Amino acid sequence: MNSTQQLTEDQNLPYNVFAKACPSRGTLEHVTGRWGTLTLGALHEGPFRFNELRRRVDGVSEKMLSQTLHALERDGLVHREAQPTNPPRVDYELTPLGREVAERLLALIHFVEGRMDDVLEARRSYEETRGTR
Questions:
Q1: Start and end of every HTH hxlR-type domain (predicted)?
Q2: Dihedral sign of CA atoms 78, 79, 80, 83 in order
Q3: Tens of pLDDT along 24-38?
């Protein structure tokens, strides 16, 4: 299938992320934002408690992780389960949809990690050419 055929086929989908009012834009933002991608990738390893997940996603603040988990739960990608214990225990895990999304994101993550030498060389070359850092 060539790119023209793919574009025509994509235009027949009920949602179009390129349309300003399409609700898929919000989900795409939740999934592809830095913390969404890293959170989904981490949860692909298995369920985590909040603080375990925060340690796994190095650099995320408590507030940002909380907002990210809330958005991903709302989109049906993450399941939150509160255990009625004292103190309360809350576990987060991927839903089947979330697992599918995470697998696609991990393919991209692994690709980028595998090509970082090329990216770093391109940055170095760019900086030399432009005289910036």
A1: 22-120
A2: negative
A3: 999 999 999 999 999
Question: What are the structure tokens assigned to 48, written together?
Answer: 């985590």
Q: What is the mean pLDDT of residues 89-102?
A: 97
CB 77 within 8 A of CB 97: yes
Say if residue 87 is preceded by a cis peptide, omega within 30 of 0: yes
* Domains located in the chain, CATH noted: 21-130 (1.10.10.10)
**d(Cα 34, Cα 131) in Å, to the nearest integer?**
29
78 neighbors 98 (Cβ within 8 angstroms): yes
Mean pLDDT taken over the chain: 91
The answer to whether residues 98 and 39 touch, using CB atoms and an 8 Å cutoff, is no
- pTM to 2 decimals? 0.83
Give the H/E segment covering residue 49: strand 48-49
Q: How far apart are CA 26 and CA 38, in angstroms?
A: 17
